[in-house]
Design brief:
This protein has one domain. It contains twelve helices and two strands. The N terminus is likely disordered. It has about 375 residues and is an all-alpha fold. The protein has a two-stranded antiparallel sheet. About 65% of the residues lie in helices and about 0% in strands. Keywords: Cell cycle, Cell division, Cell membrane, Cell shape, Cell wall biogenesis/degradation, Glycosyltransferase, Membrane, Peptidoglycan synthesis, Transferase, Transmembrane, Transmembrane helix. Its EC number is 2.4.99.28. It is a multi-pass membrane protein.
Length: about 375
């Protein structure tokens, strides 16, 4: 049996630098976006969310550095146990009271969001299994359906928590990994068609979703209801102009955009840092995707390739959806902007995943 961890090279420093830039921007912008609400809200402390995000960043970076040193091949052995543990955690959320109608968190002194773990567990499972699948992946029933069932199971549990956005991310990333592993395009197109029809049906037969979709087409039709958040986001982006109104000087964060430090933080970036700031964020994410793809191409084996592309895809899909929602390019849904939106669980687990990605970059094929 091959031993991969005898001689580890250096990490992809470019990728590491990109990750640290995103985390740094996130901590700064969370403070800027949340300071007004935190000071005048129940916390009475303008640095409340800064402290939380800063602590999560420190913990996440420590865990990322630790993960960088662990040979990613060792994950194969613990993947089945992690899958079972994740299912237990996803079920445990129902033992806690809902927040805004959703049950997404386990609160035991600190808040843990199991859906943030689930999306990476699905990637670990698929990379492990598909690396041994070979040409069987070209079969619809043996190469596609089993993964749709497993991913669908985890996505279904996440959906029951009222977290449709992360459930959708799980399924989209599943299709990406299947495509990269060699699944036939016609099989994946058929699955996309079915998912698309199911999505249309889900919107049409659910009055609330239909109303939200119609508000996306014309948010001013219900400017004080379903269209309110998008209108305020567009006002923030528009008032920022090219150069922005200045860091910390956003007006929309003053109780116009609900919880501006979360899913709509990109709107505050646009208002304070302008078009230039938005372009910079998009470019940094594009650089991340580029280095992630390079890491997957240069990986030592198929397992590393699929693991790297899966981890990269999660960040890429989430960033794309978040920016599309904030700019009014798709219906409003709650997907955080990776590394930047406020959220301890999201940041910590994302950084741990980055440690795995950086470990893969250390073990390049020769």
């Amino acid at each position: 049996m091959k031993k991969y961890n005898k001689k580890l090279g250096t990490i992809d420093f470019g990728l590491f630098a990109i990750i640290m830039v995103l985390v740094s921007i996130g901590v700064i912008m969370v403070y800027s976006a949340s300071s007004y609400g935190a000071f005048y809200g129940p916390h009475k402390d303008s640095t409340y969310y800064l402290k939380k995000q800063g602590a999560a960043a420190i913990i996440g970076i420590i865990l990322m550095i630790a993960t960088i040193k662990i040979d990613y091949h060792k994950l194969k052995k613990v993947t089945p146990k992690l899958m079972i543990l994740t299912v237990i955690l996803l079920c445990l959320v129902f033992a806690f009271p809902p927040v805004n109608g959703a049950r997404r968190w386990i609160r035991i002194g600190v808040s843990i969001q199991p859906s943030e773990i689930a999306k990476y567990i699905v990637v670990l499972y698929m990379a492990k299994s598909l690396s041994n699948k070979g040409e069987k992946v070209k079969s619809f029933w043996h190469g596609v359906v089993p993964y749709l069932i497993v991913s669908g199971f985890y996505a279904g549990l996440v959906f029951l928590e009222k977290n449709l956005s992360i459930a959708a991310v799980i399924m989209i990333v599943t299709l990406i990994v299947l495509y990269i592993s060699g699944a036939r395009s016609k099989h994946l197109f058929f699955v996309l068609l079915l998912v698309g029809l199911a999505g249309v049906a889900g919107i049409y037969f659910e009055p609330f979703r239909m109303k939200r979709f119609m508000s996306f087409l014309n948010p001013w039709q219900d400017s004080k209801g379903t269209g309110y958040q998008l209108i305020q986001s567009l006002l923030a982006l528009g008032s920022g102009g090219i150069w922005g109104v200045g860091l910390g000087k956003s007006r929309q964060k003053c109780y116009y955009i609900p919880e501006p430090h979360n899913d709509f933080i990109f709107a505050i970036i646009g208002e304070e840092l302008g078009l230039i700031g938005c372009i910079f964020i998009v470019v940094v994410f594009l650089l991340f995707i580029w280095r992630g793809i390079v890491t997957s191409i240069k990986a030592k084996d198929t397992y590393g390739t699929l693991l790297a592309i899966g981890i990269t895809s999660i960040v890429a899909v989430q960033a794309t959806i978040n920016i599309a929602v904030v700019t009014g390019s798709m219906p409003v849904t709650g997907v955080p902007l990776p590394f930047i939106s406020c959220g301890g669980s999201s940041l910590v687990f994302n950084l741990m995943a980055m440690g795995i990605l950086l470990n893969i970059s250390r073990q390049k094929s020769t």
